Amino acid sequence: YGGSSTFCRFSLAMAEQCLRGEELRARHQAALLKLRKKALREKARAELAWLDHQKRCLENLQDSKGASAMAAKQHKILTELKQEQAEIQHLQNIYRAAHQERKLLLKQQREILMMQHSTAQLQEKLRNLAG
């Protein structure tokens, strides 16, 4: 039973290590999505600034058709930005839910291992009392 106790401690250590790894992966995933969101905003901001510049040039040249085309492109970029932001938010929600599920499973595994360890200790005490 000493071996069983050692195995229990090893299993608990492994569950703890898995939990720490899961926390680290979740932080990395969140950071990556945050960077993706920031890059997306910066790209859209640059594209919109360029289109705004082109639109003003066309307005100065009194090219209303070209200026309205630039406005339509700006609208398209904003729409795409909103769609991609919604996709990122959806991914964040999925990753968060999956992380919580894995974290819960690991905690349950840890609790089971702790109960097994406690049970093994009690059985050992009973054997010592009986013997």
UniProtKB/TrEMBL annotation:
Please tell me one Gene Ontology term that the record gives under cellular component: centrosome
Q: What is a single molecular function from GO for this protein?
A: microtubule binding
Gene Ontology terms describing biological process: microtubule anchoring
Q: What is this protein called?
A: Centrosome-associated protein 350
